[in-house]
Amino acid sequence: MLLKKWICLCFMCLLLLTACGSQVIIEWVDLIKWDGEQYEAVYEVALADRSFIDKEIGEVDFKVADHIKRTSYRFKDGDAAFHEKGTKLYAIKGLDDAIAVEDQSVINGYRIYMIRAEAPPRRNFDQVPLEEVKKIEFYSSTEEGNRKTASFTDQSDMEAIKAILVNSKPAPSFEPNGDTNRYDVLLYTDDAIAFQYGIQFDGTTYFWFPSENAILSNDIQQFISKD
Question: Which residues form the signal peptide (predicted)?
Fold first, then answer.
C-alpha cells in the first residue's frame, strides 16, 4: 500500500515538472494593431526628420508580450507586442500606410511601423531609388546610442559612396573575424523616411546585408569617419 502511494506521488510530481518544463516561450513579432490594420516594425528605414511627424492618432492600450502566453492570441485594436500601455502613436506626413512611435534608441527618434500586408520583412537595397538620393549620413552604433560621424550632400561624394555600395561583392558564407564595430548608412530622398542599412567592420573587412552578406571595399572607411 505504501509502495502504491509512493508511486502515485512520484507520478504526480513528474507531471508537474513536465508541465513547468514545457512552458511555451513566444517570440512575438514587433507589431501594433490600429484601426483594423496590423503594423509591423520596419528596420531598414528611419524617419527622415521629426518635422514629418503628424498628429497623435491614439495610444497603446495593451502590451501583449507581458500578459499573453498562448500562441492562438489574436491582436486587437490598441494592442502592441512590446510597447507599454499609454505609448503614443503618430501619423506620418505623406505616408498613409505607416505610423510612428517615439523611440530614442533609434536614429532620428521615431520607430516606423508599416501595414504588414504592404511592408516586406526587409527593404532590400535594390529597392532604393539611388537617383533620388539627396543626402547620405553615417552613424556609429554603440551601447551609449547612435552618433553621427559624417554627412554628405555634395554630388561627387554621394556618387562615390553609392558606387561602393552598389559594387559590394556577395559573400553569403562570409564569417567575421571576431567582434565587430557597427555603423549605419542612411540614404535620404525627399520622402518622410530614409533607407537605413547596417555596416560592420571586424578590423579587416567591411561588410553589410543589402539582401545577403556582401563585402564592401575598404574605401568606405574614408566616408564613414570623415567628421
Answer: 1-24
- Residue 3's pLDDT is 40
Q: Where are the domains of the chain?
A: 31-115, 125-224
Query: What's the whole-model pTM score?
Result: 0.83
Residues 6 or more apart whose Cβ sits within 8 Å of residue 191: 48, 94
**Interacting residues of 204 by C-beta distance below 8 A, sequence separation 6+:** 177
**From CA 168, how far away is CA 92, in angstroms rounded?**
33
Q: Which long-range contacts (CB under 8 A, 24 or more apart) does 210-215 make?
A: 210/124, 210/125, 210/126, 210/165, 210/168, 211/122, 211/124, 211/125, 211/126, 212/170, 212/172, 213/170, 213/171, 213/172, 213/173, 213/174, 214/168, 214/169, 214/170, 214/171, 215/168, 215/169, 215/171, 215/174
pLDDT along the chain (227 residues), means of 10: 42 43 74 95 93 97 92 94 97 94 95 78 80 97 87 97 98 94 96 95 96 95 83
* CA nearest neighbour of 129 among 185, 195, 183: 195
Q: Which residue reads 504592404 in cell numbers?
A: 118
